[in-house]
Design brief:
mainly alpha, single chain, disordered N terminus, 73% helix
C-alpha cells in the first residue's frame, strides 16, 4: 500500500492562488467575448443577464463568510463545538466560491466587453450593464471565498512540505 506521508500529501488541499483565479477569469472572458462576437455577427440578439445571478452570488458569499467566521472563531478558541469535518467542508466551500466567482466575473466580463463595442445601441447597452452587475456579483463571491479560505487556513508550522499560495 501507500506510505502514510504519501496519503497525507495526496489528500491535502491546495491553497487558493490569486494568480490561478485571475487566469481562470481571463480565459473565461476571452471565451465569452469570442462566443458573443460570433453570435452578434450571426445576427443573434443578446439576452440580459438575470438578476438572480447576483442574488445567488451574494447568498453564496454571505454563506462562505458566515461559515468561515465560525471556523475562525473555533481557531481562536471561541467555538469549541465545531467539528474538524465541518471546518474542512467550509474550506472546500470557500474554494468553490472563489473559483465560481472568478468564472462568473470572467464570463460575464467578456460578455459585457463584447457588447460594449455597441454601447450607442440602447438595448445592448442595458444588456451590457446587466452583465457588469453580474461581474460585480462574481467578484464579491470570489473575494468572499478568498477571505473565508484564509480564515480556514491552519497557520501552524507542523507541515514542512506546504507550498506557498
Amino acid at each position: 500500500m501507500f506510505p502514510q506521508a504519501t496519503l497525507e500529501r495526496e489528500s491535502a488541499m491546495t491553497p487558493l492562488s490569486k494568480t490561478r483565479l485571475a487566469i481562470i477569469a481571463v480565459v473565461m472572458a476571452a471565451v465569452a467575448w469570442g462566443i458573443t462576437r460570433l453570435g452578434l455577427a450571426a445576427g443573434r440578439s443578446p439576452l440580459a443577464v438575470p438578476w438572480t445571478v447576483v442574488v445567488v452570488a451574494g447568498a453564496g458569499a454571505a454563506l462562505a463568510l458566515a461559515f468561515g467566521w465560525s471556523v475562525r472563531q473555533y481557531r481562536a478558541g471561541h467555538n469549541p463545538g465545531l467539528s474538524a469535518m465541518r471546518a474542512t467542508r467550509t474550506a472546500v466551500f470557500a474554494q468553490a466560491c472563489a473559483y465560481t466567482g472568478s468564472i462568473i466575473a470572467g464570463a460575464f466580463g467578456g460578455y459585457a466587453l463584447a457588447l460594449a463595442l455597441e454601447w450607442s445601441h440602447a438595448p445592448r447597452r442595458e444588456v451590457a450593464i446587466s452583465a457588469l452587475v453580474a461581474v460585480a456579483g462574481g467578484l464579491v463571491l470570489a473575494v468572499a471565498g478568498l477571505v473565508a479560505e484564509h480564515w480556514c487556513k491552519h497557520d501552524g508550522g507542523d507541515r514542512e512540505d506546504s507550498a506557498p499560495a
